[in-house]
Write a structure and sequence with these properties.
alpha/beta; 6-stranded mixed beta sheet; 4-stranded antiparallel beta sheet; about 40% helix
Length: about 230
């Protein structure tokens, strides 16, 4: 579905990604793990069109997307849920959700809302509440729900469990699995290595802007280097 080859990205004179190559197969959950500053968020922003590459290629469903604008990429079916949720805090829950449907016709939006409410029943009850008054976990539900309103074929999630209580972390990962079972491919950036690799079909470990390791989720969980560096084992 998504194929990235020898991708290089820089912030001015500072190189952020070095020859990154990875693939996200259709229908799978792919986890991208690594420490802060490894380049994970930079990669998602580049796929989303928010950053431009220096060199390398990115194809989605066999078509190049390197020069596509962010709205065009969303229309292709690639949706990015950013780190930190980035809601509109003074708007209601339902208005935040509808912001994710700017590429969707008016007639389709009610059906999309019902799909989101089916995954997050709480949001239906809170639909008229101001988003900034929600808890962190509830705001994360809105952020993911807003992403789903775009009807993604590929959903890219950046640190969805960041700052959440353990019980809410479990719920977020349960929801990710449910979304995947509904037919959405997921590229998951996550510092919670144990959780991410436990549910991922495939995983990549990024270090200092490069892909250091790759394998199935279970293979990486069993790797002694991964266990020592990221699991403290």
């Amino acid at each position: 579905m998504l194929a990235i080859e020898k991708l290089q990205v820089a912030y001015g004179k500072v190189q952020a990604l070095w020859d990154v190559t990875l693939g996200v197969p259709d229908g799978e959950i792919v986890a991208l793990v690594g420490a802060n500053g490894a380049g994970k968020t930079t990669l998602l922003k580049t796929v989303s069109g928010l950053l431009r590459r220096q060199s390398g290629s990115m194809t989605y469903d066999g078509k190049p997307i390197e020069e596509a604008s962010p709205p065009e990429i969303v229309r292709h079916g690639v949706v990015h849920v950013p780190e930190g949720r980035k809601l509109f805090p003074e708007m209601t829950v339902i208005d935040n959700l509808l912001m994710g449907a700017f590429t969707v016709s008016q007639s389709e939006r009610p059906q999309r809302l019902e799909r989101v409410f089916g995954i997050f029943p709480l949001l239906k009850d809170r639909r008229k509440q101001i988003a900034g008054t929600l808890s962190g976990g509830e705001q994360q539900m809105v952020a993911i729900g807003r992403g789903l309103m775009g009807g993604p074929k590929l959903l890219m999630l950046d640190e969805p469990s960041l700052g959440l209580a353990p019980i809410l972390v479990e719920e977020v990962f349960r929801v990710i699995t449910e979304i995947n079972r509904l037919g959405v491919t997921v590229l998951l950036v996550e510092q919670n290595t144990q959780h991410a690799l436990s549910l991922a079909h495939k995983g990549f470990v990024m270090e200092l802007g490069r892909i250091a390791l790759a394998g199935s989720g279970s293979e990486l969980l069993a790797d002694s280097n991964v266990r020592k560096a990221y699991l403290g084992l």
